[in-house]
Amino acid sequence: MIARNGENNEREGRKKDKRSGRQKVQKRTLKVRLVPVWLRLLIVLFLFLASVITGLMLGYSVVGDGEGARILRWETWQELYHYISGGS
């Protein structure tokens, strides 16, 4: 790939001094993350699952006129599957 207008120099941390025309090497500072990437992903996954469970419980209790915690039982899901599939 061909670099345009000194893009390659800027990527390496080098810039031309406007007065002398020489290249100066700048020290890059290392960015320290307060929360690591893997922990961010776990937090997002946890929040997603919590919102899905909360939505299921609210939907089942308000729309379905049932007890909200009942949606977390396996028997309820089996009943819903049989109802949707037309089984007995």
Automatic annotation (TrEMBL):
It holds the Pfam family EpuA. One of its GO terms (cellular component) is DNA-directed RNA polymerase complex. It comes from the Bacteria. InterPro entries: RNApol_su_b/EpuA (IPR024596). The chain crosses the membrane at residues 37-63. Residues 1-27 are annotated as: Disordered. The keyword Signal does not apply. Residues 16-27 have a biased composition (Basic residues). Keywords: DNA-directed RNA polymerase, Membrane, Transcription, Transmembrane, Transmembrane helix. This is DNA-directed RNA polymerase subunit beta.
